[in-house]
């Protein structure tokens, strides 16, 4: 991770790395030597350049947080260096220094893009203080930018979180198909993230700058769905006092996502097929056709092949939509994704709800991982939001989770593992490991306090932690 990067921790806090890499530019060797020593002693990582052109060569090879440059240098001076840096979109904070200090020169430097200006002669503390102030200002600026990005992601641009190999393969397939205009059928149980997948495909497509319009076909009465999709002409029905464009027209130049396509009436499926085939639509109550350029993504939690056999879904529409099919497995089949999703939701709700949950206990993690998640990712999201609201500490504990998750974990954790063996020795080890994990959770990982709760010596606890491979 370079100095310009950041990391989002499960606690939800945005941590920007310390800004320490600094390029010092001066044509005086003694000044370079002195500044290198002072900055190194204060924890910075200085690199020296004896001229503007040499500095430009260095910034092409690596990133710097700061550039501290003399103004008066032969050839390229400090002001010209700033201009070149900005032209190359170098984002480092530039601070200029000169023995020929004047208000005009300082204003000129700042107008060209420098952050600050130091007059020579200066005390070494003055340089360090200026760098620290600039560092703190930049750190706060970057955190604000990241928080805004996270809020945008929370409210309007959700991200697919996946750790399992299966989901990574699915995401790779989605990225491959994104570059084409062919229809895609996304299948999976309710709550698995089918709309997120559709947004991912749209975001990586050639029409990503166009609109993404989503509609849940099962949530709108069938009598209104046609008007919603295709629009209507003025006077088409009672109350139609003005013409209204439909979602196909609204999605022109972009993507139309038809969720729960399997619930659509057969008569409407014919019109959808025509729109998919040749981009032709007709508003309700209008004879003339309109051309739209729209990519269709559809989703269903039903078995459409069974629906075809039952006569409730057209086979020709199915084959037209099913050019590429992406199936999202239920969360219970990809348990490796549970904890990364939990950490993602903690980050989101810390920002959205103004909370500061920092951790989740081992017991809670294990309970969440073992749960069957009939509602999939949507259910998990709701559980985490509830747990964060109800917890009275900065941690999500087993007690923060709903009763059904706690009860199933208790039954599994204290019963099923033990029932797998008739050996007293093996059963004792299972229970001993479980108690150690609980003690560590209760003490926040403090091993000394955990040893007191377990009523064993500290060295004995350390040995057991090693024996059981507890981390």
Automatic annotation (TrEMBL):
Keywords: ATP-binding, DNA-binding, Nucleotide-binding, Phosphoprotein, Transcription, Transcription regulation, Two-component regulatory system. It comes from the Bacteria. One of its GO terms (biological process) is regulation of DNA-templated transcription. InterPro entries: AAA+_ATPase, AAA_lid_NorR, CheY-like_superfamily, Homeodomain-like_sf, HTH_Fis, P-loop_NTPase, Sig_transdc_resp-reg_receiver, Sigma_54_int. One of its GO terms (molecular function) is ATP binding. The keyword Transmembrane does not apply. The modification 4-aspartylphosphate is found at residue 70. The keyword Glycosyltransferase does not apply. PROSITE patterns: RESPONSE_REGULATORY, SIGMA54_INTERACT_1, SIGMA54_INTERACT_2, SIGMA54_INTERACT_4. Pfam families: AAA_lid_14, HTH_8, Response_reg, Sigma54_activat. Residues 21-135 form the Response regulatory domain. CDD domains: AAA. Residues 160-389 form the Sigma-54 factor interaction domain. PANTHER family: ALGINATE BIOSYNTHESIS TRANSCRIPTIONAL REGULATORY PROTEIN ALGB (PTHR32071:SF113), TRANSCRIPTIONAL REGULATORY PROTEIN (PTHR32071). This is Response regulator with CheY-like receiver, AAA-type ATPase, and DNA-binding domains. It comes from Desulfomonile tiedjei (strain ATCC 49306 / DSM 6799 / DCB-1). The lineage of its organism: Bacteria, Pseudomonadati, Thermodesulfobacteriota, Desulfomonilia, Desulfomonilales.
